[in-house]
């Protein structure tokens, strides 16, 4: 019976792939596939859940087929089912079913009808992979799908400026969560010396045995898990991205940012709780961040003029309370709170157009003066101060800009600003680096020890330059590829990292890089020189090139459509525990490289078309 868990992955996967091959004009068939997929999942889950309860409701862990085995490294697919999984699966299936029915009529005759349902089913596949994952590697597979489907749905109205801009902004925050996750896997490799499963993490004696002499490592892993959860659940200081994500269609806002995706941070904390359960400083920190987020978000929500932003900040404040419940160990209350908040926010967002119309009419005919509350006893100056800072959203959005400002400043001052300089500086430097690598034993061991850090720093500098290039799109693309070559060379100094493992990582990078270069070259042939100063909207006239280039972008970022996805885990898995600087520069390159890739796609293909003979869409959706 336990093997039936596989169907909870199979149903959304089949629904997604079938929907891809349905013609865009067949709205009825597309919508039926979309709502029958979660409906079938829901019915199957209820039957399985009843059987599971009647048979002792023991935790189920299934170690499935290995995706890659090399030396002591094993990357395998693992599934896990317990009460946390059950609650999230039920809420996800029911809400996805309701939202897809609603979307059938809401998006009728919308030009992106097929694209919307394809992306929703893709999101649902990623959601189920996350919820059913039995190890960090399987969870990261679903995590990446959630991230890219979020980006695509925020930018759904891709001919408008703000959806394209905010999609890129949200993706940059998600990328911080990605690197937090990768560093968690890296440190777990060094702590456990294997791909640890959640079943092992739930073994308190085993966890204590591994942490007794590595308490600092345990605290760092717990803090990285917290950063990942904060970024995904829009807790401070990352709260500003959630209302910006509401640029997508109302149904996707409801299912992503009101109910399911925004609660994944809570899920991660629940799933890893046995690991940091005895780290009381971490538990206090989680509760403190949740409480501060609750206070600030509640105030911001009360002064919003947009109902979507109001619901977004209200949801953030409730998730702050759920963080407190998780930190306190009240997991049943946290799960109940999650389900209630998810249903409420989905309902509020779906009925928001009708509610706005009703309230506009009601305020004229049924006006009731505000009753005196406890706030009226607070000093007016304090009231007004809190009102103003809440109205400005505590400058949380500006905080994100200030986070990237030093990197942009540094990137603009790196003198590699043309292909000639790449050939004259970077290529000879790489040849020299290869020679130094092959001269092991002939140079000082102290110097040899620092070479990986130097090489990873060079890669970081190059990808930082790509992040700030504005006048040459091909140069920005090439620098991202060259960065990966430097990072691989840096990790090569660790003997356990073999040539076949390097090829696994570079295979997707090279193929995706070539395909992307061909797409950009072809587009330049049609449109002339292309810069990255403005959003150019070339998907209007070149949708096929835009789609192929998007696939190339995903491959270059390590999305699970090429072996590079496994290669990323291989790469970080072979960085030793004492190579903190190497891990830092490799991680930063991963963050900024991913943002640079999506920045190129967004600036070239999304937004209002640069040619004036196309009708210019509204800035916002």
Q: What is the H/E string?
A: HHEEHHHHHHHHHHHHHHHHHHHHHH
Q: How are the strands of the largest sheet arranged? A: 1-2
Strand content: under 5%
Q: Roughly how many Å apart are the termini?
A: 46 Å
Helix-strand layout with pairing:
Elements: H1 7-20, H2 27-54, E1 60-70, E2 73-81, H3 83-106, H4 113-132, H5 136-154, H6 161-192, H7 198-201, H8 204-211, H9 215-232, H10 241-244, H11 250-259, H12 264-276, H13 280-302, H14 307-328, H15 331-365, H16 380-391, H17 396-412, H18 419-438, H19 445-468, H20 473-491, H21 499-527, H22 543-557, H23 564-573, H24 580-605
Antiparallel strand pairs: 1-2
Helix pairs in contact: 1-2, 1-4, 2-3, 2-4, 3-4, 3-11, 3-15, 4-5, 5-6, 6-9, 6-23, 6-24, 9-12, 11-14, 11-15, 12-14, 13-14, 13-16, 14-15, 17-19, 19-20, 19-24, 20-21, 20-24, 21-22, 21-23, 22-24
Feature tags:
621 residues; mainly alpha; 2 domains; 24 helices; 72% helix; 3% strand
What would you say this structure looks like, in words?
The chain has helices spanning 7-20, 27-54, 83-106, 113-132, 136-154, 161-192, 198-201, 204-211, 215-232, 241-244, 250-259, 264-276, 280-302, 307-328, 331-365, 380-391, 396-412, 419-438, 445-468, 473-491, 499-527, 543-557, 564-573, 580-605; strands spanning 60-70, 73-81. It is mainly α. Helices cover 72% and strands 3% of the residues. The chain folds into 2 domains: 2-360, no CATH class; 414-605, no CATH class. 50% of the residues are buried. Helix 5 (136-154) packs antiparallel against helix 6, helix 19 packs antiparallel against helix 20 and helix 21 (499-527) crosses helix 23. The protein has a two-stranded antiparallel ribbon. It is built from 24 helices and 2 strands. It is globular and about 85 Å long.
